[in-house]
TrEMBL record, chain A:
<dbReference type="InterPro" id="IPR039127">
    <property type="entry name" value="Trm112"/>
</dbReference>
<dbReference type="GO" id="GO:0046982">
    <property type="term" value="F:protein heterodimerization activity"/>
</dbReference>
<dbReference type="GO" id="GO:0030488">
    <property type="term" value="P:tRNA methylation"/>
</dbReference>
<comment type="subunit">
    <text>Interacts with TRM9.</text>
</comment>
<keyword id="KW-0808">Transferase</keyword>
<dbReference type="GO" id="GO:0008168">
    <property type="term" value="F:methyltransferase activity"/>
</dbReference>
<dbReference type="InterPro" id="IPR005651">
    <property type="entry name" value="Trm112-like"/>
</dbReference>
<dbReference type="GO" id="GO:0070476">
    <property type="term" value="P:rRNA (guanine-N7)-methylation"/>
</dbReference>
<protein>
    <submittedName>
        <fullName>Multifunctional methyltransferase subunit</fullName>
    </submittedName>
</protein>
From TrEMBL, chain B:
<keyword id="KW-0808">Transferase</keyword>
<dbReference type="GO" id="GO:0016435">
    <property type="term" value="F:rRNA (guanine) methyltransferase activity"/>
</dbReference>
<dbReference type="GO" id="GO:0005730">
    <property type="term" value="C:nucleolus"/>
</dbReference>
<comment type="similarity">
    <text>Belongs to the class I-like SAM-binding methyltransferase superfamily. BUD23/WBSCR22 family.</text>
</comment>
<dbReference type="Pfam" id="PF12589">
    <property type="entry name" value="WBS_methylT"/>
</dbReference>
<keyword id="KW-0489">Methyltransferase</keyword>
<feature type="domain" description="18S rRNA (guanine(1575)-N(7))-methyltransferase Bud23 C-terminal">
    <location>
        <begin position="202"/>
        <end position="286"/>
    </location>
</feature>
<feature type="domain" description="Methyltransferase type 11">
    <location>
        <begin position="56"/>
        <end position="141"/>
    </location>
</feature>
<feature type="region of interest" description="Disordered">
    <location>
        <begin position="208"/>
        <end position="288"/>
    </location>
</feature>
Amino acid sequence: MRLLTHNMLSSNIKGVTNGFPLRIEVEKVVEKEVDLNPDFLRSMFSKIDWKALVHAARSIGYSELPDEADPSMLDSDDFLSRFHHALLQLHLEEGVLICPETGRRFPVNKGIPNMLLHEDEV
Amino acid sequence: MSSRPELQAPPEIFYDDDEARKYTSSSRIIKIQSELTERALELLALPDDGVPRLLLDIGCGSGLSGETLSEKGHEWIGLDISQSMLNVALEREVEGDLLLRDMGQGLGFRPGVIDGAISISAIQWLCNADKSSHEPRRRLKAFFGSLYRCLARGARAVFQVYPENLDQRVLILNFAMLAGFSGGVVVDYPHSAKKRKEYLVLTCGPPSVSTSAPKEDGESYSDDESSGDDENQTVCVSDRHRPRKKQRMMKKGKGREWVLKKKEQMRRRGNYVPADTKYTARKRKARF
């Protein structure tokens, strides 16, 4: 699972009002090389919750992202490549996602988070 | 035994390792799936500016549909309830991210972040109650509600569906409209029993000129669901904020005439209805 998906994902357990962002517990992270597409990054930038992305990237061991970001930084190639790396190239292979409110743990196996809820959580 | 997989077993059981393997070994299935996806993508009518979009593939299964999305350069997130199918997707090394998730439990994405959603032959599973805790209406509502929230305004969702009958199609569509979607059904090849394919084309937010129903393939007709009944077609934003019952605005309530009319209707249907008397529809005293 990439951080792109993590940034979109929120916990939807019954009664949880703010299930975003899910905390990450890492067991294994892999890197996969992907082509950089500046257009996509620019269009995604407005949708990304930057704080959550920085936090998630740090928790899986990538701390090259600046704390604050604004759209003007998208012109810098250096920034784009870091953004790209964090968003699309780092994959959480094994680990756990944790709901920030209830502490419910969603295991991640082979890169696939198991987000199935129990019957009493729906 | 029925040929419809929905009637045989719940999806997480029906799509076991054996069934999942078919999706890599059968070139016919692969061809059909990719054709369906291409058509769905066409109906999605994304702006043609070469910018990749973030799409959702609901019921992505082994990732066949996702591969078509990747070919077109889009990023996608796929969700499916069957671990076996997702394992096949892993083997195929699909480019999108995969989630093990039950669409009937709601999608669980942040609001407004997804540029479009497709689903190939999956939505009809929502109409089944495979566990005692499953209530199709609630699941449909959770699904469409959460989908509406996570889609960006003006974004589209295209679902290729195999509804079992008219009732099922109306049920699915009604819940889509209730969630706030506008749109209808596009039928490709309506005259051929085998080739016939239905697509639910839904738009997030009120309909506009640019999002009018697209043309069908083959010699086809536009099947605007529950035709002629405009109220079911769209639930506009303004409509949704209208008080549920007019009664509240009229204050006075429904009155004797209304009750008599209803009773007459029921009688005509052959139901048992108490006789009309001077007590019919009379107000209770305040002290009651």
